[in-house]
Amino acid sequence: MSTQEQTAPAPEGNPLAPDLATGPVHSEPVAAPSENVGEEATAGATAAAAAGIAAATESAVAGDVSTDPAAAAEKKIVLHHLDDSRSQRVLWLLEELGVPYEIKYYKRLPSKTAPPELKKIHPLGKSPIITDGPITLAESGAIVEYLIAKYGKGRFVPTEEGWVDNLYYNHYSEGTIQPILVMGLIFTLIPQRSPFLIRPITLAICKNVLNVLVDPQVKANAAMIEAHLAKSPSGWFAGGPEPTSADFLMSFACETLIARGGNSAGEKTKAFVSMVHGRDAYKRGLEKGGSYAYA
Ligand SMILES: N[C@@H](CCC(=O)N[C@@H](CS)C(=O)NCC(=O)O)C(=O)O
Q1: For atom 6 of ligand 1, which residue has the closest CA?
Q2: Of 104, 124, 151, which residue is a domain's last?
Q3: How many domains does the chain have?
Q4: Is the CB–ligand 1 distance for residue 59 below 6 Å?
Q5: What is the pLDDT of residue 19?
């Protein structure tokens, strides 16, 4: 997708163009922040998304976006879904959007890694991945932004005031908190998977790493999330009346904080997760997704 020229007009006849192209795509460097930075940026980003999606829809794209002629002919979204994974949040979003889609299920191996079949869909073989016609897209953040831009019909978009918060938590989700949570998981698993004789040693080392490197970071991050949600009038990350991309993305991290136990998650974080779990679309996604240890 990054190979697309932002200034390229949406190809004529593309069904996305009327929905998304709300104005000319910015071809000049972004000016110094103004008071309505959220509004301008949203319009620019939306138009860029329109051009990008339209161009990608029309042609095969280099990089991690590949072409599957069978899926392209079928024109239906396919979610490549792994059990007990962050793919669940994409399932929630697909249910909220109400678009037709199909789930292809992949079961974790006893090692807890994904089965090799996922690598046939995308070289990294991680879930979630979606295919939508000729487009194959990995990375939750990219998928969530893509689906909202293409199928949101104006829903799940932050207000002008919430735009920067939404941007921050979109990136923070996979960029900061998730690596810390995964690091915690790995250092918890190492002693369990160590040969019996050296287990006391690995346990001692891993406990130390967890105490010094992981737990303080989890605590600081959990406190930041809690303080942020405490300021949100609606309890959503961008503070508006409806969930936005940041909420879909942050749902997994917040669920994981709760699952860690030990007061990792504060009251506002728990209230956020309850609000997510109370939504009909989330419940439908849960029924369809199979095993999910975090709800
Ligand atoms: N940053 C990626 C992470 C993808 C990822 O690591 N997915 C996990 C599931 S939660 C996975 O596929 N694990 C199986 C494996 O690594 O083999 C995203 O958000 O999509």
Answers
A1: 126
A2: 151
A3: 3
A4: no
A5: 34
